[in-house]
Specification:
Elements lengths: L2 E6 L10 H10 L4 E4 L8 H8 L6 E12 L2 E8 L6 H27 L6 H7 L7 H10 L6 H9 L14 H10 L3 E4 L8 H8 L5 E5 L5 H13 L3 E4 L21 E2 H10 L2
Helix pairs in contact: 1-2, 4-5, 5-6
Length: 275
């Protein structure tokens, strides 16, 4: 049987591998496909598709992971089989990218006041594609010896209750779902356990979302049964993804590539339904 990992990140957002390197790694892990779902970014999709054409029947699903907020809770919405050349999508992502840059400047200011000697340009060098997030700041703090790992960086400086935290501009789940649909894709609630509220989860389902990520590294067997039951009740697409950013470490909430996967034929049938 052939398998696909439906939740992966490249160095276009906060992963460490280029799209080409990600596919090479996926093949080494025995996968036959990946969905490229960078945070608020689509710039790696063309490279991934182009390289996949040189491989034997390797499938790349063009996707995205949009950061949203609803009732003061961060909620991530995955989009699959999107038209990544859609102008409305590109313009929205350009705006979100500018907001991330502004946020990075503010984080640097706060860290500097805490006697942390880093600059915006140093962070930017960690993300040459410009989609800057807290993981890039974390890696710089580790490199400069201020912290030992990402867990410490978030606990000490960058987490939601930490002194250098700066909230990020976010769209709403309904806006994200509509943006995905307008670009021809289907929408999936990412790692629903992170929402930590069944009430909010069920409220989001009212926005005509298409699916739910039942299988994720942070979900135990009880979680998987719970979200599978919700998927069956609301007739939702079931997806599985490792949320891959880099080969795993003890401090990571993300899985190794292929830790969670689906039958590639199952995903092809879903994609073809939308054609």
């Amino acid at each position: 049987m052939k398998y696909i990992d439906m939740h992966t990140h490249t160095n276009i957002s906060d992963g460490i591998y280029s799209p080409k390197e990600l596919i090479k790694y996926a093949i080494s892990k025995g996968l036959n496909g990946v969905a490229i779902t960078d945070h608020d970014a689509i710039d790696g999709i063309d490279e991934a598709i182009e390289y996949a054409h040189t491989q034997n029947d390797f499938l790349v699903v063009p996707g995205i992971e949009l950061s949203t907020e609803f009732q003061e809770t961060e909620i991530h919405i995955l989009g699959y089989n999107i038209n990544h050349k859609d102008e409305v999508l590109k313009n929205t992502l350009s705006f979100l990218k500018k907001q991330r840059i502004n946020r990075a400047f503010k984080i640097v200011e706060k860290l500097n006041k805490l006697n942390i000697n880093i600059t915006y340009n140093e962070i930017k060098n960690k993300s040459p594609n410009g989609v800057i997030g807290r993981p890039h700041v974390s890696r710089l703090l580790i490199e400069k010896g201020y912290v030992h790992d990402m867990k410490e960086a978030f606990e000490k400086y960058l987490g939601n209750q930490a002194p250098a935290y700066v909230p990020r501009y976010k769209i709403t789940p309904s806006e994200a779902i509509e943006l995905i649909k307008s670009s021809g894709g289907f929408s999936v609630i990412a790692h629903p356990k992170s929402i930590n509220s069944d009430y909010l989860l069920l409220d989001i389902l009212k926005n005509d979302v298409d699916g739910i990520e039942v299988y994720h590294p942070t979900h135990n067997s009880t979680d998987r049964e719970k979200y599978l039951s919700i998927a069956n009740k609301y007739n939702l697409i079931v997806t599985a993804g490792s949320d891959f950013h880099a080969p795993p470490s003890d401090s990571s909430n993300h899985g190794d590539l292929g830790d969670e996967k689906l039958s590639i034929e199952n995903i092809k049938s879903i994609i073809n339904k939308g054609d």
